[in-house]
Amino acid sequence: MNRNMNTRRLLCILCLLALPAVGGKLDAQTVAEPVRQRNDSVGHAFIHQIGFDIRPGYVVPTNSFLAGDNAQQKAIDQSLSLHLKYAFRFSPNSCLGKLYPSAYQGIGVSYSTFSRPDELGSPVTVYVFQGAPLMQFSRRLSLDYEWNFGASFGWKKYDELYNQKNMAIGSEINAYINLGFFLNWQLHPQWKLAAGVDFTHFSNGNTHYPNGGLNAIGGRIGVVRTFDATDGAAGAAGSKRLFIEPHVSYDLVVYGATRKKGFVKDNVPSLVPGSFGIIGLNFAPMYNLNNYFRAGLSVDAQYDESANIKDYKLERTYSDELKFHRPPFRKQFAVGVSLRAELVMPIFSINAGLGRNLICSGDDTQGFYQILALKTYVTRHLFLHVGYQLSKFKDPNNLMLGLGYRFHDKR
User: Fold this and answer.
1) In a domain, 280, yes or no
2) Is the entire prediction scored with pTM above 0.85?
3) Which of 70, 209, 356, 397: disulfide with 389, CB 3.0–4.6 Å?
4) Are 251 and 257 in contact (CB under 8 A)?
5) Which of 210, 234, 258 is the last residue of a domain?
6) Are 270 and 262 in contact (CB under 8 A)?
């Protein structure tokens, strides 16, 4: 017995002597390490939910086809969409759950119909979405936001023989963007009722012509079922919140796309034959203010193969086709600086920018431009970039499909 006791004491002394050699000193960080590992081990636990929405809407008459210049000579002003959605939240004991305790994200599918389905179709949309409370009024009632972004399939597009009045939709597949604000009422620990308003935009990003697009403003009502004993959004207690240290990070994005080019000269609309390539680069130092927001400046360089091409039009040939000279490089390359703001959430970030070209030549590249982009994180530093650029606050310009990398990220 004494021999065993002495052996145990010797092992304890050896362990205490070894600690400084291995870790330098025994401090709070060393003691907390096993706890951190246990929290990380549950970081993949999710809280699942399924929801259903009904969204009636008013179609804004942004072009003559929607205003009434169609086969029935009636305004296309009504829409209705049905949505089935799956979402998840991160466990309140996980790192992301501590940083963003109320955020949810997922995938949805919807069916939409309009007052003229024979000319517009009834598209099916697949999209990703994310939302979170903006304001908590009580334990059971909050004001929430939610964005949707995806692709819609099954449109009846413009056809010069069979659907020639449809100047709104020029392709069978169109991008879908939606933003909603609604009151979220916790009826039961596992059931929510939501009601509010939303704004919807469909377009093809100038990849096909025409690209008048379709915009709708409407309401939404939905129900959500959470598959967990207690819904975290209803006030379930979780682990202590985590907050990031303010710091500067750097985003580098490389992107490309193709586009169609149309123009009006002497009151005659024309479409330039073929598609044109675009390649660009953004470098943005961003100050990370808190868990949810970062802002900064971006240096934006872009080469657009279609820029200012209308100024180099030749006379029509014997085949009556439009022909163009290729403009010089300086007419199609621009460098600008933009102010950027970014909403940061788990998996996704939404980036918006307002910029002006400083190095440019020609009407198409001069002036202000606007950017809206969705970043989807593949790893901690690498992300997919899907964006859209407007020119001069009104003209649709081009898509921005690419990859980005974030340097010096302490998040």
Assistant:
1) yes
2) no
3) 397
4) no
5) 234
6) yes
